[in-house]
Amino acid sequence: MKKRMVSENWSIADAVFSGSKSGLSKWFFVLLGVLALNISAVSQDTLRMDLDEVLELAGKQSLEAFKAENVYMASYWEYKAFKSSLLPQASLRVRPFTFNRAMTQRYDINQNIEVFREQQTLNSYANLSVNQNIGITGGKVYVDSDFNRLLNFNADGLETYSLTPVRIGVVQPMFAFNETKWLHKLEPLKFEHARKAFIREQQIINRTVVGLYFDLLLAIKRSEMAKSNLKSAQELHDIGRKRFALTTIDKESLLNLELSMQNATTDLVMANKEIARARFNLSSFLRLDQAVVLFPEIPEETLGLQIDAMEAVGYALESNPTLLELRRTRLEAERDLERTVKEGNLNIDLTASFGLNQQADDPSQLYTDMLDQEMVAIDVSMPLLDWGQRKGRKEMALRRKEVAEIEITQAKSDFEQEVTLQAIDFNLQEQLVRTSKKSEIIALESYQLTESRFRTGNADVLTLTSAVNARQNAQENYINNLKLYWQHYYRLQQLTLYDFRNQRPLSASFEEFHP
After folding, report:
1. Which residues cross the membrane (predicted)?
2. Does residue 96 belong to any structural domain of this protein?
3. Which pick of 110, 172, 295, 370 has the fewest CB atoms within 10 Å?
4. Are 133 and 85 a contacting pair, CB within 8 Å?
């Protein structure tokens, strides 16, 4: 990357002053029209960058790159949270005090009746627990401990304590849908998709930058061509006027020369306008200061690669996030079907726990002669009559799964076809670049010969105009073919996530800088 201070050329002014003095007044207003487009560029910083430098800069500081980075990091921390949820979870619950004063219904044993009595209590409670989900069975085991203190103001401040130092329990659904099992399958797939989607997004950014880069390059080349055409048109117009005075050319030919001069002036104004727009678009995408004038360099050399289509399809099937998304869609359809089936069937929940506990008026007595605490419960539920709801939900889930399978098969086939065609297009595009480069050289030489012949009176105006147009079209075709070449290449990298230039997966460089 080179940085220096420059003064922008005065575009049309150079061409005007190189012509006859008699043409100054004619071009005065044209000069004023383009002056505003050039005056702001005087003494500005100029950056000359090649395509690789611009791509690197876009990957570091464009807004799209920042967005992709943050989307990936959000998925990364979501996956970290999932991994953490698989580990034992410890929690502490404390209720320092609960004061209660109310009229409460109680049984009076002496009178054998229910009566209302005032009750005032102060309760404190603490619980420490450790829980662990069981992924294979969908159950949960836990170990906990709790402490309770009760102060009864109605019984002369009677204070009692309850302690459960340890309790071990298990909660196990027998035939229920196992959400944890499916999370084990889906969450790693979601994170892998996010990782590869981030790499794919980098290639999308590259393709966008290639388009903006060559738009600016083409605008600059059009401006250079327009300046050259204007200068030549002025010189040829002067020659034409002299020949017209000698009656060696007719009025129509002279008017055509003047029209060519006017068209060249218009082309230059439009090209400068196009440069300003294209430079603004590229600088904005790269988040460069608009005071910096960016000049792209033509990437004359292609990669010289011929990519095997079947090899590209293999890389794409292995790495592209689209295929991971299809796998995820299939798993989600299978999960939904299983959930629908199991939620409508017999369900048995087993709950069991064993621990030690004791209560006493003195905290020091809580560990004396502790009592066993056991609990076993079985909860059975099943639908008896639902008027076909379970069957309907099951059929819907089954049909959705079959539709998903069809869509996955079609999407995979379309994807393989796209990769194959993209590889073919890339391989052919290099030949088009070479051909258009040769055409550009031939068109330039043809124009120079035609111009020389016109100066000596051996070519007419129409032949000269045709040569000018052919030269301009050839140069634009070359730039456009280069643009398509690099867009095809980064599109292929986007589909395969493979660096064909360095012969390695793009994930290799990704893993060097990302978790």
Report:
1. none
2. no
3. 110
4. yes
Residues 6+ apart with CB under 8 A from 330: 404, 405, 408
Residue 103 in contact with residue 117, Cβ under 8 Å?
yes
266 falls in which pLDDT band (50, 70, 90)?
confident
Which of 165, 162, 166 is closest to 360 using CA atoms?
A: 162
Strands 504-505 and 158-173 turn out to be: unpaired
Q: How many helices (H) and strands (E) does the chain have?
A: 11, 11
What's the number of domains the chain is made of? 1
Provide the mean pLDDT of the chain.
Answer: 86
Q: Determine, yes or no, domain membership for 212.
A: yes
| Of 24-33, 79-88, 209-218, 340-349, minimum mean pLDDT range | 24-33
Q: What is the domain range of residue 223?
A: 2-11+47-77+185-327+406-513
Any domain includes 417: yes
| Digit-coded pLDDT (tens) for 136-159 | 888 999 999 999 999 888 766 688
DSSP string spanning 69-107? Answer: HHHHHHHHHHHHHHHHHTS-EEEEEEEEEEEEEEEEEEE
Separation between Cα atoms, residue 226 and residue 272, nearest integer Å: 10
What are the phi and psi torsion angles at 277 (to 5°)? -70, -45
Report the phi/psi class of residue 304: left, alpha or beta, with left for phi > 0 and alpha for psi in -120 to 50: left
Residue 387 Ramachandran class (φ > 0 left, ψ -120 to 50 alpha, else beta): left
User: pLDDT value at position 89?
Assistant: 95
Which one has a higher pLDDT value, 11 or 341? 341
Extract the tokens encoding 106.
């109680």
Residue 116 β-bridge partners: 105
Please say whether the dihedral angle defined by the alpha carbons of residues 190, 196, 199 and 204, taken in this order, is positive or negative.
negative
Tokens representing 305 are 């690669």
Do 281 and 215 form a contact (C-beta atoms < 8 A)? yes
Look up residue 88 and give its amino acid: P
- Whether residue 467 is contained in a domain is answered as yes
| Predicted local distance difference test score (pLDDT) of residue 415 | 93
DSSP-assigned beta bridge partners for residue 348: 380
What are the structure tokens assigned to 286, written together? 């790269």
Checking if the pLDDT of 212 tops 80, the result is yes
Question: Taking 70 as the threshold, does the pLDDT of residue 22 lie above it?
Answer: no
Please give the model's pTM, rounded to 2 decimal places.
0.80
Task: Identify the CATH number of the domain in which residue 474 sits.
Answer: 1.20.1600.10
First to last CA, the chain: 30
Task: State how far the Cα of 271 lies from the Cα of 283, in Å rounded to an integer.
Answer: 18
| pLDDT tier, 44 (very low <50, low <70, confident <90, very high otherwise) | low
Tell me 362's DSSP state. Answer: S
